[in-house]
C-alpha cells in the first residue's frame, strides 16, 4: 500500500499535469484567436497592435469593435439608393477639375451619407472608422487617408486632393453593396463605374 507521501506526490503530479495542459490549451486558444482576428481585420490588425502597443490590448479592442458592430443593423443598399449614390459620385468626379476642394468635400459627405444609409452610426471620425473596420478592414485605410486630407492633416494641393478622391472611391465602391430581389449579394450596381 502506497504511503501518504507517495499519494501526495502523485496528487501533486496530477495537478501539475492538469495545470500544464490547461496552460497549453489556453496558449493554443490565444494563438487561434490571434490568427482569426488577424485574418478578419487584415491590415487593421497591425494598425491596432501598433496603436495600442501590445497584442493583448489590440485584440481586446478589435473584439470589442466586433461586438459593438454586431448590435448595429447594417444593411445593403437598395438598388435605387445605389443608383442614386452612383450618379452623385459620377457628378462629383466630373466637378473635380473645376473645383477639387469642393469635389473632395462632396466625396466626404457622400461617404457619410452612404454609411448612414447602410446603418453605420456616424459619431466622431475615429469611432466611425473603427466600426467600418469590422466589415470593411481592407478599405478603412483609404477612409483614414482621405479624411486626413479633408481634415487638413495632410497637404491639400491638387494632387493630394486627387488622391483623396481615389481613396474615397475605393471605400465608396465597397460600400455600394446591394441585394438583388432574391436577397443575394450583388457587389455593386452594374451601371456604376469607378473610372475617373
Descriptive overview:
The protein has 196 residues and is mostly helical. It folds into two domains: 4-70; 79-186, no CATH class. Helix content is 71%, strand content 2%. Strands 1-2 form a two-stranded antiparallel ribbon. A hairpin with a 5-residue loop joins strand 1 and strand 2.
- Computed Rg: 24 Å
The SS-based structural class is: mainly alpha
Mean pLDDT, rounded to whole units?
84
Give the low-pLDDT segments: 187-196
Strand order of the largest sheet: 1-2
Shape: elongated
In percent, how helical is the residue content?
A: over 70%
Number of helices: 8
Helix-strand sequence: HHHHHHHHEE
How many beta-strand segments?
A: 2
Q: Helices and strands in order, then pairings?
A:
Blueprint: H1 4-41, H2 43-52, H3 55-70, H4 79-95, H5 100-118, H6 125-135, H7 140-150, H8 158-175, E1 178-179, E2 185-186
Antiparallel strand pairs: 1-2
Helix pairs in contact: 1-2, 2-3, 3-6, 4-5, 5-8, 6-7, 7-8
Descriptors for this entry?
196 residues, mainly alpha, 2 domains, two-stranded antiparallel ribbon, 2% strand
Would you kindly provide a brief summary of this structure?
Helices cover 71% and strands 2% of the residues. It has 196 residues and is mostly helical.
Amino acid at each position: 500500500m502506497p504511503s501518504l507521501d507517495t499519494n501526495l506526490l502523485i496528487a501533486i503530479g496530477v495537478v501539475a499535469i492538469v495545470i500544464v495542459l490547461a496552460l497549453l490549451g489556453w496558449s493554443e486558444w490565444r494563438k487561434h484567436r490571434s490568427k482569426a482576428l488577424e485574418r478578419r481585420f487584415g491590415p487593421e490588425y497591425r494598425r491596432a497592435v501598433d496603436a495600442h502597443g501590445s497584442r493583448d490590448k489590440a485584440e481586446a479592442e478589435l473584439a470589442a469593435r466586433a461586438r459593438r458592430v454586431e448590435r448595429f443593423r447594417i444593411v445593403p443598399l437598395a438598388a435605387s439608393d445605389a443608383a442614386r449614390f452612383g450618379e452623385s459620385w459620377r457628378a462629383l468626379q466630373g466637378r473635380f477639375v473645376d473645383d477639387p476642394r469642393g469635389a473632395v468635400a462632396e466625396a466626404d459627405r457622400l461617404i457619410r451619407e452612404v454609411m448612414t444609409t447602410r446603418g453605420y452610426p456616424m459619431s466622431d471620425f475615429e469611432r466611425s472608422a473603427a466600426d467600418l473596420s469590422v466589415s470593411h478592414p481592407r478599405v478603412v485605410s483609404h477612409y483614414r487617408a482621405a479624411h486626413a486630407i479633408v481634415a487638413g492633416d495632410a497637404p491639400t494641393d491638387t494632387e493630394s486632393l486627387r488622391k483623396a478622391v481615389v481613396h474615397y472611391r475605393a471605400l465608396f465602391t465597397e460600400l455600394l453593396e446591394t441585394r438583388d430581389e432574391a436577397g443575394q449579394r450583388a457587389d455593386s450596381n452594374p451601371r456604376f463605374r469607378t473610372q475617373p
